Amino acid sequence: MVRYLSLVLILSAGVAAAQDLQYSNDLTAACVYAQPTLAGQKTCIGRSAQACMDATSMGNTTVGMGGCVSYELEYWDTRLNAAYKTQLAKAKAWDVEMRELGSSAESMEDALRNMQRSWIPWRDATCGFERAQWGGGTGCGPATYACLVRLTGEQALYLETSQVGE
User: Fold this and answer.
1) pTM, whole model, 2 decimals?
2) C-alpha 71: how far from its chain's center?
3) Is residue 146 within 8 Å of 131, Cβ to Cβ?
4) For a 10 Å CB count at each end of the chain, is N or C smaller?
5) Where exactly are the structural domains of the chain?
6) CATH for 2-161?
7) 100-136: b (≥16 Cβ within 10 Å) or e
8) Nearest to 153 by CA among 50, 4, 7
């Protein structure tokens, strides 16, 4: 975990150096909105980062790639946190309703919290494996960010489309 945090801090310093990047969440957001299925929405992950890389000469550098992808990671992380909070509130309400009905069903809130807590180390380990495939080279930073974007985006979309209490 310490190596992961160190990598994020190092890459964040590189992002600060990438001030001329032209990034917007609009492509990703519009794509997700236009897709009627979860599978279709998943194809939208990374669109804004790719457009950012394509829009500047820095986009093909390690710093440029890391910067563009880190911006999209922020976007998906915000969506993930919002979706989790929404689903957690629904799960709590579901549990209250089930208790009032005398149900002995497993707590939806506990199940959601356990799932998310298990997902975080899985995501980090998966991205660590993808980073390791770069053998410590300069591509390991952008590869890590790309993995984090993909998995965070997929989890955000999953939570956004979950039918908790419905």
Assistant:
1) 0.83
2) 11
3) no
4) C
5) 2-161
6) 1.20.1270.180
7) eeeeeeeebbeebeeeeeebeeebbeebbebbeeeee
8) 50
